[in-house]
Every structure is written in C-alpha cells, then in structure tokens.
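dumping the sequnces here before i forget
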Amino acid sequence: MVDKIKVSLLGSTGMVGQKMVKMLSKHPYIELVKVSASPQKIGKKYKDAVKWIEPEDIPENIADLPIVSTEYEDHKDVDVVLSALPNELAEDVELKLVKQGKIVVSNASPFRMDPDVPLINPEINWEHLELLKYQKLNKNWSGLLVKNPNCTAAILSMPIKPLENLIKVKAIYITTLQAVSGAGYSGLPFMAIEGNVIPWIKGEEDKIPKEINKMLGKLENSKIKHANLEIHPTTTRVPVKVGHMGVINIVTDDNFDEKEVQKALEEFSELPQKKNLPTAPKKPIIVLKDEDRPQPVRDLQYYNGMSVAVGRIRREGNVLRLIALGDNLVRGAAGITILTLELMKELGYL
Amino acid sequence: MVDKIKVSLLGSTGMVGQKMVKMLSKHPYIELVKVSASPQKIGKKYKDAVKWIEPEDIPENIADLPIVSTEYEDHKDVDVVLSALPNELAEDVELKLVKQGKIVVSNASPFRMDPDVPLINPEINWEHLELLKYQKLNKNWSGLLVKNPNCTAAILSMPIKPLENLIKVKAIYITTLQAVSGAGYSGLPFMAIEGNVIPWIKGEEDKIPKEINKMLGKLENSKIKHANLEIHPTTTRVPVKVGHMGVINIVTDDNFDEKEVQKALEEFSELPQKKNLPTAPKKPIIVLKDEDRPQPVRDLQYYNGMSVAVGRIRREGNVLRLIALGDNLVRGAAGITILTLELMKELGYL
Amino acid sequence: MVDKIKVSLLGSTGMVGQKMVKMLSKHPYIELVKVSASPQKIGKKYKDAVKWIEPEDIPENIADLPIVSTEYEDHKDVDVVLSALPNELAEDVELKLVKQGKIVVSNASPFRMDPDVPLINPEINWEHLELLKYQKLNKNWSGLLVKNPNCTAAILSMPIKPLENLIKVKAIYITTLQAVSGAGYSGLPFMAIEGNVIPWIKGEEDKIPKEINKMLGKLENSKIKHANLEIHPTTTRVPVKVGHMGVINIVTDDNFDEKEVQKALEEFSELPQKKNLPTAPKKPIIVLKDEDRPQPVRDLQYYNGMSVAVGRIRREGNVLRLIALGDNLVRGAAGITILTLELMKELGYL
Amino acid sequence: MVDKIKVSLLGSTGMVGQKMVKMLSKHPYIELVKVSASPQKIGKKYKDAVKWIEPEDIPENIADLPIVSTEYEDHKDVDVVLSALPNELAEDVELKLVKQGKIVVSNASPFRMDPDVPLINPEINWEHLELLKYQKLNKNWSGLLVKNPNCTAAILSMPIKPLENLIKVKAIYITTLQAVSGAGYSGLPFMAIEGNVIPWIKGEEDKIPKEINKMLGKLENSKIKHANLEIHPTTTRVPVKVGHMGVINIVTDDNFDEKEVQKALEEFSELPQKKNLPTAPKKPIIVLKDEDRPQPVRDLQYYNGMSVAVGRIRREGNVLRLIALGDNLVRGAAGITILTLELMKELGYL
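..and the predicted 3d for all of it:
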C-alpha cells in the first residue's frame, strides 16, 4: 500500500506498549516509525531499552529504532501519535502534543471524561468520533485527542451494549476478578498476590460506571448525553496474569428470554466488523455454553484477544446473570487503540 | 474433667477430618476416641492411614489409634459420632447409625434440607436445635441427626444475620471467590486452576440460597419457617488454598447508616459467646477498615479461624456492599461441627 | 502429496495425545486417521471424549472421528500406530499390536531398555534405527517397535551430545526442576504443589542415567554399546505448568573453553536438520546469553517447542555448568515421536 | 528479669525486621526498645510506618514506638543495635555506629568477609566470636561488629558442618531453589516469577562458597583460617514464598555409610543447644525419611523455623546426596541474629 499511516508510540516499552509494537509490526497500513520512552532511555536502541516479555522476538524493524523523547520535535513527521503512557504522566505530555497540532490516540485516563473528547470502544460507540468535528473549536487545540477506556470498562461494556434494545436495565451489580497485568508488569509483588485475593483496586470502582455510561451515551446536538445506568461495581485482584473477568447481574423489569440474550450477543456486529477493519474481531462477543467457562487460561485467544468471551448466561426471575472475560492488554488496551485509529481513517478523521 | 464427651469421627483422614482431629486434641471436654476411614484403611494405625497435611504433628493420642469401620459396632461406646464424610457416602452411613441410636453431628450435605433436621451454624440459629425434641418421633429414629451447612453458606450467612433487624432485604447479589481446598485435597489439579479462575462450582449456587434461608428461618410450632430472601449467587473458584470470600450486595428500601451496619457486625454476639463455649470466637465477626481487606493470606486466623472477617462496607444509595471472608475448613466445616456439639451439651441435648 | 502416511494414535485424549493431534493436523505427509482412547470412550466422537486443553480449537478433521479401541482390528488399515499411552497400559497393548504386524512408535516406558528396541531422540541417535533391521528376527515379531525416551532424558541429553568430542566427561551432577504437566493433567493436585517444591519424582532418577547412556551409545555389530557416563540426577517438581529444566554440572579433566562449548551447542545440527524434516527445529539448541535465562515462561517456544534452550554456560576449573530447558510435552514427547516417524520414512524403515 | 538487654533495631519495617520484632516480643531477656526505619518514616508510630505482613498482630509494646533515625543519638541508650538493613545502606550506617561505640549485630552483607569480623551461624562457628577480643584493637573501633551470613549460606552450611569429621570432601555441587521472600517483599513482581523459574540470583553464587568457607574455618592465632571446600553453586528462584532449598552433592573418596551420615546430622548439637539458649532449636537438623521431603509447605516450622530439614540422604558410589531446606527469614536471618546475641551474652561479649 502506498499511503501507510505513520505513527509514533509513547510508552513503547511498557506491557501495553510492547503489545502495540507487536500488533503494529504486522499491520497492513499502519507503520510504527518512532518509539518513545522515559528520558533515561532516550537514544538507546529499542531492543536495549525494553525488557521484552512477549513470547516472540522483538519485530526486526523496531528492534534497532532509537528511543525518542515525548517532545513535538520528535513526532512532527508522523501522522498520529499513539499513547500507552502511564496515567500520571499522560496529561501534560499528551496535551502539549495536541496543542502543537498532533493527533493523539491514547489509553491513558486523563481527559477520558472531558465532554469534548470521544472515549472510544470501537464496537460500542464509534459514532462518538463525531465529537472530533467540534473538538478543535471548543478546545482551541490545533490537534485532536481521542481516548480509549479503562481496560475493565472496555471489557464490561461489550456484553451490555447489545442488550440495550432487548431489556430495560434497572441496576447492574458487577464483581470483577482482574488480572495482575492490569497493574503493570511490576505493579504487584509476588509476595502480595500469590495464593491471595486483594478485594480492592484503587480508583477502578469509580471509573467503571462513569466510563461505561459515557460510552453508552447518545450524540445529541454535537454533545454526548451520558447513559444513566445504575452500576454497582466491586473490583478484586486475583492471582492470574492476563484476563479481566466480570460477574454481571443485570436487574430489569422486563420479560426476556435467555435465548434472545444469547442471540443478541452472538450476533453483535458493528461498523468495525462491517468495514472488515484489520484489527476488528469477526465476532466481538464469543458466547460459550460450557458451564465452567469462560476461563482466563482458555478463553483469551479468540480473534487474537480482540473478542470478549461471555458465559453462564442465566435468567433468574427479573435478573440476567452473565460472566464476561477479555484480554486486558489487547481488548482492554493495545487492540482498541489500534482499532480506533483504523476507524478514524475509515471515517475520514485523519 | 470427669465427664468427657467421648466421640468418634467418620472421614477422619480427609482435610476436614484432620482439622477436627487437631482441634479435638486440645479440647477441654470432648475426647476423640475412635477414628473411622474408608474400608481399605481399617485396622491400620491412624498415622499410617492418613496423609497428614496440617503443619503440626499428628496429636500423639490419635497417631496410634486403629482405623475403624463406619458400622454401629465400632461406634457403640461413644456418646456422639462426628462426621466429615464425603457427601456421596454420608447418606447411607449416617442414616444407619442414627437409626441404630447414635447421635450424629455431620458436615455432609444429605438431610440438610430435611424439615426435621436442624441445620446449625451456631451463632446464627442455635435455637433450631429445638427440632431435636421432635425429631425422634417424627422420623422414628432412635438416635439424633444434626447437620452443619455447606462451607460457603456457613460463611456468607454470618454478616447477613446481624442485619436482620437493621435493614429489610429486597435482594442479595453475591459473587464468591472460593478456595481450592473447598473441593478437597485432590479436588482440583494444579493444571486446571493455577493462574486461572473457574467461574462455576458444581451444585453450590443451588445450595447457598436454600441453606441460608433455612438457617435464617424462625421456629414456629416446632417447625422452621424458612426465610425468604431473594439471593442471587455466582460461585467461582480461584487459585487460593484456603479461604472463601463473598462479595455481597444487599438491596434494600431503607435508610440506613454504614456506621450502624459496622456496629451491628462488630457487636454481633450470641449464645456461644455468652456461654463462653470453648470453640466459640470472642468476636464472630471481625470488621476490617483498611480498603484492601479482607485477604485470604492475612485474615483467616482470627480466633483460630472461627471468625468471619468483613470489610469494604459501603452504602451506595439503597445498596449495602460488603465483603466477607472465612476459613472454609474451620468456620465452614470442622469448627462449627465441634461448636455445635458444645451447644448441644450446653442446651442439654446429649 | 499422494502418498500420505496414515497413522492411528493410542492415548489420543491425554495431554501428549492432544499435542500430537494438534501437530499432526498441520503435517504435510502424516495423516491422523484413527484415534483411540480408554474403553469407556469407544464410539464417542473425539470432541465429546476429550477434555481439550490446547488453546486453539480441536482440528476440524479430527473433532468428529469416533474413538476406536486398541485392538488390531481397529488399526489394521493404518501404516503406523503412534502411542501416547500411559506407561502402565502400554506394555501389553503395544506388544500385541507389534506381534500382529503393526509398526508402533511410542512414548511409553516399557521396552525402552530392551536391547533390540531403538530408543530414539532424533538428533542424538537417529543411527540407532538400524536396530530395526534385526528386531523382527531377534524378537520374532511381525511388526516393529520404536521407543522415545522419558521427557527429561530427552531434554537433558540434547546439550550433552554435542560435547562428546569436545570434553571427556568424568561425572555429571544434575538437578532438575520439572513442570507439573510431566505428571499428566491430573497428576498433581493444586493443594500439593502450589507454592511448593516436591524434591522427588517417582522412578525418574533411575530412568535418566540409563536412558541417556543408551541414547549416547554406539552401534557395534548390530547392537548398541551403551555409553558409560556417571550421572547423578536429583529430580524435583516445581509449580510450573510446562517446561523441564536441568541444572547440569559436567566434571572433566580437560582444558576446554566456554566459547567452544557455546559454539558446539549453537552449531549442533544432525540428520533431521540436514534433511530438513518437517518437525525438525532449524536449531536443536538455542544458546541464550542473558544471565537469567532460560525461563519456562519465555523460552519454550523456539521452533514450536522442538528446541532446547541452554543458558548460564560457565567454566569453573574443570567443571562445566550449564542450564537446559525444554518443552516436556513437545521436545520431551509428542514432537520427537513425530520426528522419529519422519526419520523412519526418510531412512526407509516404513 | 532485672537485667534485660536493651536493643534497637535498624530496618525494623522490612520482612526480616518484622520477623525480629515478633521474635523479640516474646523474648525472656532481650527487650526491643527502639525501632529505626528510613528517613521519611521517622517520627511515625511503628504501626503507622510498617506494612505489617506477619499473621499475628503487631506486638502491643512495639506498635506505638516512634520510628527513630539511624544516628548514634537515637541509639545511645541501648546495649546492642541489631540490623536488618538492606545491604546497600548498611555499610555506612553500621560502620558509623560501631565507630561511635555501639555493638552492632547485623544481617547485612558488608564486612562479612572482613578478617576481623566474625561471621556467625551459631551452631556452626560460635567459637569465631573470639575475634571480638582483637577487633577493637585491629580496627581501632570503639564498638563491635558481628555479622550473620547470607540466608542461603546459613542454611546450606548446616548439614555440611556435622560431616566434617565423617567424610573428606573433594567437591560439592549445589543447586538451590530459593523462595521469593529472599529478594524482599517487593523484590519480584508476580508477573516475573509466577509459574516460572528464574535460574539466576544476582551475587548469590559468589557469596555462598566464600561465606561457607569462612564459617567452616578454624581459629588459628586469633585469625580465622578459611576452609577450602570446592563448592559449585547454581542458584535459582522458584515461585515459593518462604523456604530456601539446596540439592547438595558431596563428592568424597571415603567409604562412608548413609546411616552414619544420618546419625551425625540427627545428633548435631552445639553450644546453643548445650546452653539451652532461648532461640536455639533443640535439634538444629531434622532428618526426614519420607522420599518426598523436605517441602516448603510442610517442613519449615520445626522449632519455630530455627531448624534445617534434611532429606533424601543417599550414597551413590563416592557421592553423598542430600537435600536441605530452611526458613530463609528465620534460620536464614532474624533467628540467627537473635541467637548470636544470646551467644554473645552467654560468652561474655556484652
């Protein structure tokens, strides 16, 4: 292809950064040409700056790239800046680049709840990219900023979306069992979590309802009217490496049928699927029927980790119970950033 | 003490059996004098028949006891038969002994829901022992049968009971994260559960609501009128050795105060406490205030495992969320069997 | 290719069996046409008889195959019978099939030390297949029997072989750290091995020296003269799912150079490589230079698990220390059975 | 008791520090009166400065102590300063205190190999405390410095010592399987070591031979003549929380008998035992006969963690193989520091 999209990557040596490096190395039309990391790594070759943990080798075309800074100068000749920066560093760095004219697509939390910034989980709310039409004007930015949701919100929102037209939700009770990688490679010591459960994840229970309600919101008069679901999350950390699971109880008043729910989930398909975007899973939701699924060691690999597996669908009176599982590094982070960029190209926002 | 209660123990070589052996070895007035196990072990010394896994040595007075059968002959000279039999073996064996006149206190599931059989979690429903006054007549048994609940129901019922008079429960949504020991020592292969979550435990989601509602029931006209709580449990297995955790969301209409809830839990005290029974924890519920507690590696040891730790108490609108954790082998099994026997003695049922 | 080798597989539902099913599903000229398993599974479809644990789906062409017995009738129309039977069942079943004329290539332990039976680790001793020229006569069998070594012996022998001509070995001290899958899917309960080390594996310390010495033996007058290495193995089980590691100390009198050792290992290449056999790794030994490698979570994937990773090569006086790691299910079992069959075809033994 | 030894503790909030706090809280004559930690914690109460991980509560008499600095002023009124400082901080801090006149007993690595500093593993080389008679003069210090060995050297030296007079050692090949706590509470991320083995521990393979040879050395003319054992260690990290294991192969020329070895180990008893010191284990070495022992989950509790468990004793020709296991936090650190202080008192060095 002649016109590849040239991108740079902030936070390229972290776990999500590595996942993006790997996914982009095989991408048909997005080309990673610059990798950025923390100041003390600048100038080193990527292969010397990274503690590579993916099972396959560092892609050859990336291994020898020199680490660059997060300054505009180092990114001026790329079309888009992707960001896998830690939350605490992202606000300043990303804002500066956007003000200087860059298009930034980012996983980090700052600005996620900003009314002018689309918070995109591609199959859920690709329409929200329309905010970009007003963002420059409203913000007085020369560039553009697009956000992806928190990894858990990204996964949990998936099975909720297709039910919108099927049942009227009164309240949702969610318990998550989240993998250690969600805290970063060094986020949790072995001594703290091995053989243990830590029934609390800092900040997470606050983000989940807010981000899901924003993503499920409707565009009205160039603004997003947030949904208003009553969501009660409890988030726990379990000794699992990859894979965030959510036990979801949806309370409704409606009559509904388990089979219909299952069908709605299985047939869920949106613009990314219709346009056959390279990173889009053929089936965003995989419904499993064995009673003891989904399981992190078995059910993370569907469509390279881009699908969410859903099992144990059960109706009990007016309550729908289901269990969702997704790859927090792919579906929850690296993969949706890339898929968002594919959507932006498809919809003409580049 | 002159008048020790002499007991025998069925299923003495399993994990719960070993826990009882250990607890009874230090008991002030219950004396374990016979140990029974599966037919191929009969005649062996206990120390040769058991694969002992408790950290301390086998109690000296038990180590050389010969394994006996489950037949009446082998138990005729004990006051009470305790049973840690596997569920699938318990029905026939226990029934036979009861019909032949033995008093049996058992952890196994058969007969738990029988209207004539008390299902005792001591602090919750010691009054239900009164059923024993009618059991012989109703059943035409010469002995007596008392049951203890499923380990998860035993733990989850603890923080629900003290709230009875504080809030009116409309519905309860529970997700459990249960330890592997709940399935028995060899119940789950390492290959199946290490680094994994299995979001289903056979039979468990059926037992929990039924057993809790029976335990929370009221004695009326020599029968138990079951409570009628709407309980929606989802049970999962996590790679933890000991300790069942429950994330509990209680929906109510009432106004209530988190502080009152906390106080009601902290001050929970019942007959076992008032009578200062040897195995009764001084505080049946330990309220933890750190956000990241309770945790299996830290919060199972209160009063030798007989207390349930409760944390993350939070009110959100009309919903009360809390997290309970208990030792499934002690609070969930061995300990409440022994405490039940202490109660029976205290209340004159021996 | 017109002339595919048709094979059946004994023990097709176990972990090694599943690995073979997967590897054969993509094989250019070996076609799996019959799958056998234990009597109670006969007649069921493979997909219903197996508890499939590989991350990808069951290969389509196998999923609906009916399970057959181990009797000759069920295997008469295949060219070769592959066996992943448990050791305790293998002797009778395999012998019967060989006597009835089948060619059997097997992973199971019986007959491994029989002087008429080649014990093949392809890169180490493909020449030993020559025993097959005399086997029928010596044994009065109408078929042929070929064995593969114990998984640990298969892995440990790899780095020893290329050093044969470089240093004269006086003694070898080996400590292994072996994965739980080596005991089979249900071989070890979580409760027994999680967070633990079990410093003993039944039978293993006996097999390792004998099998390595047979594999390193020389063909002389149509017999194998075993090597005579003094090997002192201690075998331990660690809480790792896949990957057997060996810490190897080789005592010698010679002067040698670490660099030469490294070169000999890196350049190791034998008939399977020269003939470019489909399952042969391009490099049977991967030498790693980072001090903290090889590691099971990172170093099992070279050439689909067919290479052995070797690291921490160090000379200390007259002692060579190195650490070897291999995939016990692939390099230690399924993979070498298939590679052995490829060799047999290449060398005209089919 | 009137004359308690008053001690302060450097590094009191780390894992080894916490273990000492716990052990000292029940000590008959050593009284912990000051706790020190890193500068940002100074002034806080111990209970607020520590992330307490021991299962029991913080001892009451310590919980409210204010954290003090490492400066002399803060320790001038104690008899002895105990140190559980990290290696990288210990050199300057400890040296300064010793020069200002304090008696320091320390676990940290600096000065361990100093010829004037005794490196004490109590049962092995209590005689080496005699160096203290010359230390002040040789060093021109006003205080005294005593060191304890690296945790692995402390454990491995135990079964070697009693064999000194039984067999003449030609070489020792050791592979260790070490627990994660050896790297400190936050020393290894879950993502790095769970389900993995890391076959390298920084610095460890250098320390082990040197420290063991110093400890096994003889006092000659007020100096220690180091032993000269040829020790070849390979150190690995395994996903175990507590307990360092060593697989030890001892090569000799002698005729010896396994039974004699076992007897020598079982009967090992030294001054700490003879004087019945409070922290001394009755039996410093516990010989286990079951083939599958010692195991970290079962064999760390003998005499509160102060004994080393030894199993799998086997003679093979001129090679003695045995496996040793000890609690790296107690036998390897906190416990021997306290026992060393008890010895110093017993021998009149205070």
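The mean pLDDT of chain A is 96.
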